[in-house]
Amino acid sequence: MSYKRFIMGLLIVGLSTAARAGDIEGKVGGMKGKSVVYVDVIAGKTFPAPKEHPVMDQKGLLFAPHIMIVQQGTTVEFLNSDNVQHNVFWSAIGTDKKAGHNLGTWPKGEKRPYTFDKAGVVPLLCNVHPEMEGYIIVSPTPYFAETDDSGNYKIKDVPDGSYSVVAWHEGAKNQSKPVTVAGGGKADFTLSK
Ligand SMILES: [Cu+2]
User: Fold this and answer.
1) What spacing in Å lies between the alpha carbon of 89 and ligand 1's midpoint?
2) Mean of the per-residue pLDDT values for the chain?
3) Distance from Cα 149 to the centre of ligand 1, integer Å
4) Domains (ranges, CATH) in the chain?
5) pLDDT-derived band at 24, boundaries 50, 70, 90
C-alpha cells in the first residue's frame, strides 16, 4: 500500500468512526432513587459475552449491590460475606417462570457462579432470610446505564441507529421509548407504580 493510500485510509476510518456513535442521555422521573435504562434487543445483533465476572455479595443480611445491571451472557459470582448461611434463588426471569432457579445455600467466603443467558429482570431472594431482596437486570445489549439519585443517566457510545430504550425501576412499570441516535440521542421517562 502506498503512503498516500494509507493516509487516506486512516482519514476515512477516522471520519466514519467519529460520526457513527454517541451517547443516549436523559432523566427518569416519577419514582425516587436509582433506575436502570438500557437499549432493548436489536434485531439481527448479538454481542459477545463479557469476560468480567461482577460479584453480587450478601453482606450484613443484604444483597450488595441492591441493584446490578449486566449484559446478557455475563457470569455473576454470588458471594456470601456473612457469618450465617445464605441462599440465592429467583422464581422467574421477567415473566418466564421456567427460568426460575435455586443456586443453593452456602457459608461465608464461598462463591457460586451463574451465567445469565436470558435477558430480563431477575428478582433475587434468600430462603433463609425472607426479608432479603435484590435485583439483577440482564440487558440484551451492552448499552445500559444506572441513573444517579436524581434520575439522570447517560448510555455511552451507542452506534447511530434507531432503538427501543427501556427504563426500569424497582416496583414501577417498565417503560420503553423509541430513540434515534445520530451522534447522540435523548429520552426522558416518567415511571409510575
Ligand atoms: Cu440470607
Assistant:
1) 10
2) 93
3) 27
4) 1-37+150-193 (2.60.40), 46-140 (2.60.40.420)
5) very high
Give the count of beta carbons closer than 10 Å to the beta carbon of residue 105: 15
The CA 3 to ligand 1 mean position distance, Å, reads: 64
Q: Which of 36, 35, 30, 33 is nearest to 191 (CA)?
A: 30
Greater model confidence, 49 or 15: 49
| Separation of CA 112 and ligand 1 centre (Å) | 14
* Residue 86 reports pLDDT greater than 80: yes
Report the pLDDT averaged over residues 108-124: 97
Three-class SS of the chain: CCHHHHHHHHHHHHHHHHHCEEEEEEEEECCCCCCEEEECCCCCCCCCCCCCCCEEEEECCEEECCEEEEECCCEEEEEECCCCCEEEEECCECCEHHHCEEEEEECCCCEEEEECCCCEEEEEECCCCCCCEEEEEEECCCCEEECCCCCEEEEEEEECEEEEEEEECCCCCCEEEEEEECCCEECCEECCC
- Spacing, Cα 178 to ligand 1 middle (Å): 39
pLDDT confidence of 149, banded at 50, 70, 90? very high
Q: Which residue has the cell 445469565?
A: 116
